[in-house]
Amino acid sequence: MTQFYNHQAYIDLNDSQKEAVKNLDGPLLVLSGAGTGKTRVLTARLANLLYSNKTKPWNILAVTFTNKAAKEMRIRLESLIGPSANSVWLGTFHSIAARILRENAEVVSLNSNYTIITPDDQIRLIKQIMIDQDIDIKKFTPKAMSNLINSWKDKGYKPDDINQSDNDFFANGKAINIYKTYQSRLVTLNSADFGDLLLYNLTIFTENLDILEKYQSKILYFLVDEYQDTNTIQYLWLKLFANKSKNICCVGDDDQSIYGWRGAQVGNILKFEKDYTSAKIIKLEENYRSTGRILEAANSIIANNKERLSKKLKTSSEDGDKIDLISVWDGVEEAKITSLEIENLYSCGFRYDQIAVLVRAGHQTRYFEERFVDIGIPYKVIGAKFYERLEIRDALAYLRVVQQPNDDLALERIINVPKRGLGTNTTSLIHSYAKKNNISFFSASQELLMTDELRPNVKRTLQNLINQFIDWNNHNKEISHTDLALKVLEESGYIDHWQNENSIESEGRLENLKELINAMSGFDNLSGFLEHISLVMDGDNEAEAGEVSLMTLHAAKGLEFGAVFLPGWEEGIFPSQRSIDELGLSGLEEERRLAYVGITRAKKRLFITFAANRQIHGLWQGSIPSRFISELPKKIINENIEGNLGADVSSYNQIDFDLSSNNSSYGPGFLRAKQKGIRGLNVYKNTQFEKSVSSVNLNLSVGQRVFHQKFGMGFIISSDGDKLNINFDKAGEKKVVSSFIKIID
Ligand code: ATP
Ligand code: MG
Question: What is the CATH number of domain 324-378+541-660?
Fold first, then answer.
């Protein structure tokens, strides 16, 4: 191998970046703002470790925040060092911990083929335990209990580590006991939840020094991306693991810490110097991603946070376009205008996959999806965890029972999916029989079939299902696991179930099932696949070339796009009311960091939209523009729009609060809109598009640029009364009725 220092990937770095890539030994922290090349530095450092023959690929551990990021890093690394990139241990905290647990499962009373249960399995199991313990699950919900258990696990607490005071406030002091029972039930089921992965790792490491030493001598170099979002247990795990070599390089940005609600401790990054006494700290100041104006917007918003290290962030890029701040009437209009802007960007040469719509909450994607389907903009919702989808969970439950008939949680999930007449009466009967006799749900079903407890038709159906599982289980060794999966899904009636539904949604579900089977082919057998499914497949659904990405701000961390849309900038939505209610000022500051993350994803164009009205739980409510809007410097906002809104964007909040006090039956947003003449389409008039809501008085002529709900953008080529012949950019030539089109100029 040639020297890495002669490699273009090194030469292209700036001096501070080079420092971080050159200093391979000892603890190093790269602390710097968004887009300064932290991830790039981490990858280059990895390459340098190998180029310089410091160590072997299998002696390196690199931790990324998502599997997608791991995949991207591996691809970049491969382009730098070739196929040996595959031997680097590269993954998320969870996937690495899952592997260590698999290698040492017996130490914590599990088998190496343990199942990783999904969050809804977790809630179901907790619910059963709470019911058994006579806890009022309306007052103390299983979901809240599962949050509590997860937060304990994030802090590294086993049941015995919990303070009585932490326990008192929930379920009349029974929470510790529920936690204990839950853990022992999981062991019986040979299962672990997500939180367990790291918790068991910590137990293994602290209680078995020989095992810890084995791993410590295997991994000599550690690299961690997005260090600001590590939680306590990840921090403890890393500290213990890297304690021997102390060759640890972490990169992060305190301004991008956005997982406080899941236990992330931004303090970890601030403690680095204390934890590793000889630590070197490198700050990068040049942002290579965004235009000057986008960066100014980000800097100006984040400056309002009190809890932060002050960092410099500059760019030598051009100022770029102003930021488009767009007021719309409601969610439907927001989606419409967004889609028009996307079409416009497309016609200006942006590819769809360079465009992203980043929402605060997952449910906000709905209007956009509907609109994109309507007008044919290709898109993909990213980050919705694949395994969290209904059809995937169902399919996996079937496969889990085939693999391990005693997987009660899985069998209970699908015993009546699709509906086959084995409803709650039957399942509770089986359940109590299983509990009384201390046997599994599957065995209880078999035993009950030999009695007259069940009605004849129920008995017949249950017998069929049990026979099917036995048959599938027998086939497990005979046919390939992908064929087996297809067989199970077909014979169980599960595929028919979605085919019969015949909706747009069900088509998507069938596609996902196909994807699941494709994914299986990458594994040697069913058990290998099942062990890793939940970890490996999260966020696997990347946008393909040519698709707009639709995702949450949280899922967008670390990514970049040519153009970014940030919808729903309204008080309550963003910043999220819940975040402020639960965490007060620190919640608000986390929301602001999220705004910073969102803005800094954009390279060239940034659009921020807010609606005057929102439908919340079926009711229309006036909404108030987000306070973050007033934190944007006026001079970088698209003047056309700003002018139309009545000049002073920073006074919005004040006006709205004043209006809300005059006791009107309309919400403040409605009044504000009325007073200022804000209706999305009117506001929009001064921007690039002239649109008309009604096409009755349209002045149509050949050659005009038009927009059609279904076919998108096109030019009129001829007309015959109200029938138009239009050449659509994507759909080709079509005859449409004029009332369905809008003029664009
Ligand atoms: P984030 O905080 O969002 O995770 P980051 O600090 O990890 O950002 P990168 O994603 O590594 O930043 O880099 C941002 C962009 O800048 C990438 O497109 C990267 O290729 C580019 N970049 C980084 N360093 C340089 C450089 N020295 N010269 C040119 N481009 C660079
Ligand atoms: Mg990064």
Answer: 3.40.50.300
